Structures are given as C-alpha cells and as structure tokens.
Amino acid sequence: GAVVSQHPSRVICKSGTSVKIECRSLDFQATTMFWYRQFPKQSLMLMATSNEGSKATYEQGVEKDKFLINHASLTLSTLTVTSAHPEDSSFYICSAIPRGRPGVNTEAFFGQGTRLTVV
Amino acid sequence: EDKVVQSPLSLVVHEGDTVTLNCSYEVTNFRSLLWYKQEKKAPTFLFMLTSSGIEKKSGRLSSILDKKELFSILNITATQTGDSAVYLCAANAGGTSYGKLTFGQGTILTVHP
Fold it and tell me: What digits encode the pLDDT tens for the residues B78-98?
C-alpha cells in the first residue's frame, strides 16, 4: 500500500525554539496533505490543509503564523511550529491523499506521527 | 459544522466476546466513512465505506454503512487481547474538501484475557 513517512517521530525542544516536521509520500504524488493534532486521550483534530504550490488552508482557531506549512513538492509537506510553548506539546500527524482520477475514492494514508514535547 | 459522534466512548470485554462500535455523522457533501485502529502511534486503516448496506469484512472485523440514517457500525467477533486499541471513525467530505477527515472521539476498547 501507499506509504507516508513522517520525521522525526519524537522531538523534545526548549520553549521559544522552532521545530520542523516533515511529511513525505514515498511512492505516490499528493497534491494535498493534511496536518492533524492529537492531545492525550482525545481524537485527531484537523489543523490545516496543505496544498502543493499554494498557501495552506487553516482551520478555525489555528494560528497560521505559529504553524507554518510549506508544500514545496508533490511528495513533501513541512509543518514548522514556531516559538514553541509547552502547550504545543502534542502528537502531530500528517495524511496524504494519492492524486487520482476524479471520482475515485481513495483512503487517506497517515504518517507515523511526531510526538512533540516542549520543555 | 461537520460532526462525527462515536459510542460507546469506552468498552471493556473479555476474550471471545463480540463487540459493536457505533458511529454517526453529519457531514456536508459526504463522500465516505472510514474506520481506523489506533494503538500507540498513527491510525491504521481498517475500512472505507461509500455505499449503504454493503458489508465490508476483514477476518473477524466487519463494517456497514447506512447513508439514510447517517450511521455506521464496526463489529469485532471473537475478540482477542490484540484488539485492544482506540477505534476511530472519520467522515470524508467531497468536492473541495476531499480528503479532509472529520474524526469522532474514538472508542477505547479493552479486551481482557
């Protein structure tokens, strides 16, 4: 099946620093990738939609200047958490939809997730 | 606003029991309903349902969708301790929101030996 690789899987950073998380589709092209955040014992909440070659679309309540998204190619999207605070500590997961013919249903493939701890 | 609600939120059973997990949804421009199993890391895909009344089956797991009642169930028969996990359902919208998943809260399933 399709593979999405997310890196790093775990990161600890100091408060005030920035952290970059990468999401790569390894064997397919994805014009659209999605970034989710999951707090402990809660479900996945969509943060933003990453579109190749254009600006990301953020969900309500998500600060675009804090969570910078860059979708530079059809196989790579990055999420940068800027000026991280302890409350940003969470599990961040990306997903990608293989580019396909209109009307074809394909499931979203998830990366392994990144556990961010801000100390 | 799109919404997905799962029940029960948690379930404790013994090995060999059969469980039914529920998922209801209200999604504009609904396209498909997906079930995932999440253990310690990212969710792993179980089923995608697009048509009403057609059961999908994989081993001891099966799932069905009712698009009239906006409802889906996931059944697990002869449960094993390895089935212990969080089960998530998610609704996939179509059109410009294609691929944008709205997740339910999840059902925490614990299977005791």
Answer: 999 999 999 999 998 877 677
